Amino acid sequence: MPLLKRVRLSLLLKLTVVLGSVWMLSLLNELRTDWSLTYNWREYTDVDGGPEKECNCAAILQGETEALKKARSLVLTKDFHKSIDIPDEHYINATKDCRNFKLSRKYLTFPLSKEEEDFPLAYSMVVHHKVQNFERLLRAIYAPQNIYCVHVDKKSETSVFAAIMAITSCFPNVFMVTRPVTVVYGGWTRVQADLNCMADLYNLSTEWKYFINVCGQDFPLKTNFEIVRMLRSLKGQNIMESEKMPARKKRRVTYVHQVVNGQVQRTKKLKEPPPFNLPILSGSAYIVVCRGYIRSVLEDDRIQTLIEWGKDTYSPDEFLWATIQRMPGVPGSLRPHTKYDMSDMNAIARLVKWQWHEGPYGFLDAVYSKCHGHHVRGVCVYGVGDLQWIISQPHLFANKFDANKDSIAIYCLEKYLRQKALAELH
Predict the structure, then answer these.
(1) pLDDT for 346-363, tens place per residue?
(2) What's 122's DSSP letter?
(3) Catalytically active residues, by annotation
(4) From 88's CA, which of 81, 186, 209, 356 has a CA 20 to 30 Å away?
(5) Which residues, including other chains, have CB under 8 Å from residue 142's CB and lie 6 or more apart?
(6) Do 257 and 264 touch, CB atoms closer than 8 A?
(7) How far apart are CA 365 and CA 420, in angstroms?
(8) Whole-angstrom Cα distance, residue 303 to residue 67?
(9) Beta-carbon contacts of residue 263 (< 8 Å; ≥ 6 apart)
(10) Prior bond to 69 cis, omega within 30?
């Protein structure tokens, strides 16, 4: 063994004895395994060696004009898109050797700190396409002490299901949901997908502290260490959008809706008033909640009644969690008074740029600057020009990203987060 490696091993052994820490022993074992690799585990320079490495991510994150122009020009070329297009079959083949897959993709397979090891998180990941997006998201949020439930829409392509199942099979703490459903946009089944993962996560482990749900086009803005620090500081409180429902959305919960030919349609039939005179609040599908909140969702009779009432509404994911968050007795909840209302810009669970809130700098009615990518259903799919603004925000995750449209935006975020995570090592 070369002298440098012997010295490195000796120092780590001494540190392990001094700290007596489980996570340091795990780190030591991982380093022993990785010495045969061609990359240094402390480095994350060219990430995956793909065509994105031509870009200067540091300059892009600083908003430098020339770097942004180069990145935008690159993503417009056919050759670039052809080179970043990864077929589903690639993942099926790559995961036949799980050890090599995890090492080549540089998954962090050991806790980076004792604090993170002692504060495991539970994730629900609801996806239906774009396997590359899913795998890059999983890698960005993966930590061995956490637990991950993956729900793949039952109507997804066979290759998507097979690829994601192959990826999850490589990790002992990542699993496919036991009861997948066919998800209808705007329908109850979007909620049911998360409910099924909630139940699996709650029953499988008693260790995790907080639940976070994501979709395949989310991406983190914080490292696992930063997320843990932020959640520990909440002392059991939840983070989510929850505010008075705007008038334009009230028809969603005042009329009965039904699924016809795979689409949700409003009928002329009025719904019964909400149970227990509950104020129905507006929110988001994406939440960060303590374990007690999940227990209430699964076991509280009041919430079960609310769930049954909400099954024939439109987009129930945008009111259910927000309403439960204001119910008395739910762990981590807030009072239903308007003084406790929280908008999506203040609730740091998810950062979203809505098209109708965009505007030029100095325009007082604008919440944020224009989208530098493109829009899907009024939501900005971020481009590289959004990154400088994104990383300055306090939110834990951002939505939406699309590797097929602008993989450089994801690439630079990956690099930024990994370098920050390694710099946080104590």
Answers:
(1) 999 999 999 999 998 778
(2) E
(3) 318
(4) 186
(5) 107, 108, 148, 171, 174
(6) yes
(7) 34
(8) 51
(9) 184, 185, 186
(10) no
Q: Which run of H or of E encompasses 352?
A: strand 351-352
CA distance 396 to 225: 11
* Domain ranges, ordered by start, for the chain: 59-234+351-394+396-423, 242-340
Local confidence band at 396 (pLDDT 50, 70, 90 cut-offs) = very high
CA–CA gap between residue 75 and residue 82 (Å, rounded): 10
pLDDT in tens, 180-203: 999 999 999 999 999 999 999 999
User: Containing H/E element for 325?
Assistant: none
| Phi/psi at 146 (5° precision) | -80, 175
At 141, the pLDDT band (50, 70, 90 cuts) reads very high
How far, in whole angstroms, is CA 93 from its chain's centroid?
25
Contact 186, 264 (CB under 8 A): yes
Question: 347-359 burial string, b = 16+ CB within 10 Å, else e?
Answer: bbbbbbbeeeebe
C-alpha span between 192 and 197 (Å, rounded) = 9
Distance CA 219, CA 412 (A): 12
Residues 165, 37: Cα–Cα separation, whole Å:
26
Beta pairing partners, 221:
none
Residue 259: predicted pLDDT: 97
Task: Tell me if 280 sits within 8 A of 323, measured CB to CB.
Answer: yes
182: exposed, middle or buried (C-beta count within 10 Å: 0-12, 13-18, 19+)? middle
For the chain, the average pLDDT equals 89
| Length, in residues, of the chain | 426
* DSSP secondary structure, 150-215, as one string: EEE-TTS-HHHHHHHHHHHTT-TTEEE-SS-----TTSHHHHHHHHHHHHHHHHH-S---EEEEEE
Report yes or no: 340 and 326 within 8 Å, Cβ to Cβ.
yes
Phi-psi region at 76: left, alpha or beta (left = phi > 0; alpha = psi -120 to 50)? alpha
Sequence-distant (6+) residues with CB within 8 A of 65 are none
pLDDT at 44 over 70: no
pLDDT at 348: 94
pTM for the complete prediction? 0.89
Residue written as tokens 């944020």? 368
- For the chain, what is the largest distance between any 2 Cα atoms, rounded to a whole number of angstroms? 79
